[in-house]
Amino acid sequence: MIHLIWSIINGIIVIYFLYLIVGFIAKGRKIFKPQFKVVSIFIMVIGIVQIISASNSEKNSNRISIAKDYNRKGNAAIKQVKLEENWTFDINMLLKYSIEQNQYIPIESNSFLTGLVSGYVWEFNSIDTSNLNSNGKAEFIADGILKWNLFGITVYSESKTFNGTIE
Q1: Which residues pair with 148 in a beta bridge?
Q2: For the chain, how long is the longest CA-to-CA vector?
Q3: Quick one: which H or E segment has residue 13?
Q4: What global pTM score does this model have?
């Protein structure tokens, strides 16, 4: 429930920012009501700074290479694991396996958010896993940081560790 409230707050701030920009272009300084003038100007300045800085920021690919020396031309299999489910979004992980002599060797992992992710950024930091067993299962431990952003500024960083079984 808290994730939904956070996303709604982010949406309201973005809509208010767009209202301020369009109103400022149409009406000029009259758009700023005296009782909300400081807050409105603050939101407008932060929004403009975030738009300018967004073009310069690096995007984290959330891709981790587990084994660098493997046969890229051989057969491969991808397994998907849902690390966490929330009302508004899920944290997912993909594991790519190289198939060599009937053995599944983990070579690469990727993690991402799906759903309503307004106000959240997921940084996938590490994964520890083994080859798939003969019964088709492997244990894993993965961790990352879920950043709670308000209008593009990180307000809180939540460290998350997941462990489970890949089938």
Answers
A1: 120, 156
A2: 73
A3: helix 2-27
A4: 0.80
